[in-house]
Design brief:
490 residues; alpha/beta; nine-stranded mixed beta sheet; seven-stranded mixed beta sheet; 21% strand
Amino acid sequence: MLAIRLLVEPERPDVLVLPVRPAAADDAPARPVPTDVALPDGVAEEAAALVPAARATGRPGEVQVHLRPGRDPGRLLLLGIGEGDEAEWRTAGAALARAAGDETRVTLAMPAGATSAAVRGLVEGLLLASYRFRLTEAGAAAALAGVDVVVADPDAYAPAVEAAGTTARMTRFARDLTNTPSSVKNPEWFASQVALAAAEVDVPDLHLRVRGPEELAAEGFGGILAVGGGSASAPRLVELDWRPAGARTHVVLVGKGITFDTGGISIKPVPAMKLMRKDMAGAAAVVAATLGAAALRLPVRVTTLAPLAENMLSGSAFRPGDIVRHYGGTTSETTNSDAEGRLVLADALAYAVAQLKPDLLVDLATLTGANAVALGKRMGALYSENDGLAADVLAAIGAAGEAAWRMPLPADYTEHLGSDLADLHSSPDRGAGSVMAALYLREFTGELRDRWLHVDMSAPSWADGDDAELTKGATGWGVRSLLRWLGTLG
């Protein structure tokens, strides 16, 4: 990651970045923002003259580069920050990371009186937009190694930089997990990566347990075993517990962890299978958020469950029409082996309710293609019967710079979950796809039904190209939102 330094005085920068705000009136020019920094002689006046000459608008993310041969600094970057709220600074930071990619280090003079939220947004944008995942040494890598942020009082902003740095690091970890090809990424590998990351966090109140196939069978995790039964790579259940002393609230996070999804016997068409290495993005998000909560010492207990399986086609794969017995004994008729994610989630949810008894239960899953059909590529579908919980999580999602929309749980759709052979039909062909999946999961929440929230985040888990703080590939969606929300529960 980029090295971010808070400084009181710039260290003779070769590249100096000055923020620019839009004009107060439509017919007025944009303007450089006053800073607390003593700028090199003539730079403030030069910037004031350049802004109208360059027709700078001050829009968040706009970058104007001006060369100053033979002078210090040698380059002057004018960075649009809009009105300067956290979201606009996040956009500006992302744009700066890309515009200055060929530089080694840049210095940014923050506006006088900048808020901690502005610094947090800036740092998140810088660190997330500079992310790259590559398995080859070919091609030029970005040269930018660090950004110096000049402020009047570095100590005042240090907590914001720490929070932003941890959030970005964990988001990048979730992106790494999701981007990794499934030739490497199987359930055992995923669990090993969690163990390594937990060791790096290195706090005494963080505990990890990984169940293998024998333990899963002995304890009755039939959904995880059914989905993972067709693969040579056996399934796992990761249980990661951040258990700080004095925590008054216990949250269980559950994330779908299908390390590759062929669709099983109900095999996917080739175009739908190409990116199925991302079908564990929910598990990556909840694991990374829990590690982030531990790293930030958030005073809330967080237990994450990541049911991991590879849904493959083989002679031992589960069949359409099979009856699956879940943890706790509930049975499901499944006539579509490509509706597998809900089967592993059902096991984890039932276990959480029966054994962990949390105050709140939240799951994230790349569950349905219907998510993108209903809401497009950037927005998750959020479901909950608890208005307060839904509002709090949606507020955290918005503050983190992600997006979700609350969807309904219509009572009359539940009749489609009926089965002549089992307690439930897990893959009915009636009703709205994302809604039916949520209604099915709700059946496993027991006494926590009114304290449960589900997000179908299949669409926003992947970006088709660079966009603001997102880079092409896995987005790490949910890590930022969960950490914001968990931070409100102490």
